[in-house]
Specification:
Helix content is 32%, strand content 28%. It has 251 residues and is an alpha/beta fold. The strands form 3 sheets. A 6-stranded mixed sheet has the order 6-9-10-3-11-12, sandwiched between helices. Strands 2-1-4-5 form a 4-stranded antiparallel sheet, with helices on one face. Strands 7-8 form a two-stranded antiparallel ribbon. Helix 7 (207-213) packs across helix 8.
């Protein structure tokens, strides 16, 4: 497998509190990598480092064999890493196409020198194509986001990541507030990303979701990597035990 992203000896200190302790992590191209751990295990800190929201105290990030430095979330995004947080960061009162193209709007020139206007037609068409690539069909790209279901909103957030040509999509607790039906839709979205060659890092407390869609899982405990396993070797119960104890030998 081709290594897409690697964390080497990542540490993060907040004053006297050490949130991450020597984290080594390899993310392969096309991976669906699960990240689990109790509250305070270091998951959120690791996400923020990968997304460019914070800089590690020490350690290195490597992308496709080259050292990288993310100075901001936009910097990470421009290098192909998109993070979709639990709140999705969507503008609920704007239509789908404006959310997909937020910050990267398509412009068309006019006959008036210096005058440019939004190419809404092209953005609507492209937004529908991004959603279709995820097997999501919404007839009207002018539909407001606040009229969509939870699964559809996740699809809009993912489409925005695809618009930025993201090679790696980090998803933070994407099914936390969803029912069974909508959870199934989101897991199918993750499978669609995987099938299209996009790498996914899934952070979740839901052991069933992790076992269902990931190829590997990493367990964090007290800021350290306690375990790393192929998901096919785990059941929901054994993964739950692994998260609770951090004892890889007993999972």
């Amino acid at each position: 497998m081709t290594q897409l992203l690697e964390l080497k000896q990542i540490e993060m200190n907040y004053g006297s509190v050490q949130a991450l302790k020597g984290i080594d992590l390899v993310v392969n191209k096309g991976d669906v990598l699960g990240v689990c751990g109790d509250n305070g295990a270091g998951k959120s800190t690791m996400i923020k480092i990968i997304s460019g929201a914070i800089k590690p105290t020490s350690g290195r990030l490597i992308m496709q064999g080259e050292p990288v430095r993310f100075d901001s979330p936009k910097d990470a995004l421009m290098k192909g890493v998109a993070t979709i947080y639990q709140d999705l960061a969507l503008a609920s009162r704007l239509p789908i196409y404006q959310n997909v193209f937020m910050g990267s709007e398509l412009i068309r020139r006019t006959f008036v020198p210096g005058l440019k206007i939004l190419n809404r037609k092209a953005m609507r068409k492209a937004s529908a194509e991004y959603l279709a690539s995820l097997n999501i069909s919404i007839p009207d790209m002018d539909t407001l986001v606040n009229e969509l279901s939870g699964g559809q909103r996740q699809a809009v957030a993912i489409s925005r990541a695809l618009r930025w040509n993201a090679q790696t999509v980090v998803m933070d607790e994407p099914t936390a507030a969803l029912g069974v039906r909508e959870t199934r839709k989101v897991l199918n979205l993750i499978r669609s990303l995987r099938d299209s060659g996009v790498t996914v890092i899934l952070i979740s407390h839901n052991m069933e979701d992790i076992v269902s869609v990931t190829s590997r899982v990493v367990v964090l405990k007290n800021g350290e990597k306690a375990a790393e396993r192929n998901t096919r070797d785990l059941t929901i119960d054994s993964l739950t035990h692994l998260v609770m104890t951090g004892n890889e030998s007993q999972a």
